[in-house]
Amino acid sequence: MNQQEWNKGLYVNGEWLTLAETIPVQNPATREVIGSVPDGSVKEAKLAVDAAHKAFEAWSKTTAYERAALLERWHQVIESRLDEIAFVMTMEQGKPLAEAKGEVQYANSYIKWYAEEAKRIYGETIPASSGSKRILVQKQPVGVVAAITPWNFPAAMITRKIAPALAAGCTTVTKPAEQTPLTALLLAECAHEAGIPAGVINIVTTSKAGEVVDVWLDDSRVKKLTFTGSTPVGKLLMRKAADTVKKISLELGGLAPFIVAEDANIEAAVKGLIQSKFRNAGQTCICANRIYVHEAVKESFLQALTQAVEALRVGKGTEDKVEIGPLIDDRAVQKVQHQIDDAIAKGATLHGSPVVEGSTGYFMKPVVLSGVTDDMVCMQEETFGPIAPVSTFTDDQEVIQRANATPYGLAAYVFTQSLTKAFYFSENLEYGIVGVNDGGPSVAQAPFGGMKESGLGREGSHHGLEEYLEVKYISLQFV
Ligand SMILES: NC(=O)c1ccc[n+]([C@@H]2O[C@H](COP(=O)([O-])OP(=O)(O)OC[C@H]3O[C@@H](n4cnc5c(N)ncnc54)[C@H](O)[C@@H]3O)[C@@H](O)[C@H]2O)c1
Ligand SMILES: O=C[C@H](O)CS(=O)(=O)O
């Protein structure tokens, strides 16, 4: 992309708008400004709802097959621009290019999945208790959807919302994270190129998140809020959405326990932990956050884990074979460093050093902490960084109680070779997602979401489509 292309307009009603006020986009690996996007405000927020509301009239009347064909076309266009989108994602979010390509494909798999699911929005007929009546149940699109998304998966968190919304016949207004707007606008470019009509997808980039989202929450034409981000912000938006009784979906914070049972395959457990813990430099909502290893296998596990962590390559996402990119900003680095300092102060042992000598970006080397206890901050708060805190246990029931002792309930992991243990753990862990011998459970065909304060609703699978549908009951009486 040439320099001009790094300065993009926001996308409303099928047009690209530029504003005098802009937001700089920073490369977290170099701290350099690589581009800019418009700093949208109340005016652009209202324009977006106007466009989505107007487009809903026609879009909601299209057939499932017409919507499916356009989603399929969008999928094809993204596929054709995969390398470009991945490169831009690496430049604005920092993840290694290989991971960015993986995310674009993962994001695109939701579009593919919902292109197919659009044709399977079934209703039902129910036997009536009166011979003169017939009972029909229809599914109809909820209407205009407001989507708010985070920076850690700049593509997937957007398509995981927009694809089912469009499949259901809804139209959308989206506010991407201020740190990663370019990927969102590239997805909109692909949708525009695919022929998705003006007003069906609207992207408002802004540094004034509260102002823009408040416009959408206050507007009764917006029927649904779907939010992915931190639990505190999710609670705030949930309260505000109540004023107009909007349908809501929340994908919030996690604090994933990763349990290595006495009979675990240690090699598989270490491989699964590396996959879960260090993906996106530890900046995912389902990263292993608390590692519990059975006392009987602690030494062999720790030795294998520290060797594997030491071998991980840290660097810019554009450099070959890099596995760990930078964190998103300096605040993230400070938060992770605080958790390391707190753990050491409370008696943990640090294996390795987080310091990257002479780095220009927000880099931290992955480290392991052993001798960790539940009173340490890294075992109580989402880390969102490359720390692997290892605690031990002796009794399965005890470790399940410890794993469940948190307001969060998004993802959990257990490694065991026993079918009995696999079911005992997975059925007693209070989490929406349980990986059994699997450190990477996320796929479009499965329902992704949390229990407790990790969220409401599900994304992916046919469950994810229901979030954008109203159920209408038609009672038909013969007269
Ligand atoms: N459960 C999931 O699927 C999932 C996926 C990705 C990230 N997350 C969570 O997201 C968090 C990291 O992402 P983040 O730092 O972008 O979260 P965040 O909550 O700070 O921001 C998320 C989005 O909300 C917007 N926002 C922030 N404050 C707002 C306000 N007052 N009003 C309206 N909008 C506001 C931001 O601009 C951004 O677009 C972590 O807690 C992570 O666990 C969860
Ligand atoms: O960070 C949270 C994402 O939802 C993780 S995943 O990409 O869905 O695995």
Describe it.
- Keywords: Oxidoreductase.
- GO terms for molecular function: succinate-semialdehyde dehydrogenase (NAD+) activity.
- Belongs to the aldehyde dehydrogenase family.
- It is an enzyme of class 1 (oxidoreductase).
- InterPro entries: Ald_DH/histidinol_DH, Ald_DH_C, Ald_DH_CS_CYS, Ald_DH_CS_GLU, Ald_DH_N, Aldehyde_DH_dom, Aldehyde_DH_Superfamily.
- The protein has 479 residues and is α/β, with parallel strands linked by helices.
- The chain has two domains: 6-252 and 454-476, Aldehyde Dehydrogenase, Chain A, domain 1 (3-Layer(aba) Sandwich), CATH 3.40.605.10; 256-436, Aldehyde Dehydrogenase, Chain A, domain 2 (3-Layer(aba) Sandwich).
- The chain is 38% helix and 22% strand.
- The protein contains 14 helices and 22 strands.
- The strands form six sheets. The protein has a seven-stranded mixed sheet with strand order 14-15-16-13-12-18-19, sandwiched between helices. Strands 9-8-7-10-11-21 form a six-stranded mixed sheet, sandwiched between helices. It has a three-stranded antiparallel sheet with strand order 5-6-22, with no helix packed on it.
- Helix 3 packs across helix 4 (97-117).
- The mean pLDDT is 97.
- The ligand O=C[C@H](O)CS(=O)(=O)O is lined by residues 152-153, 156, 284-286, 442, 448.
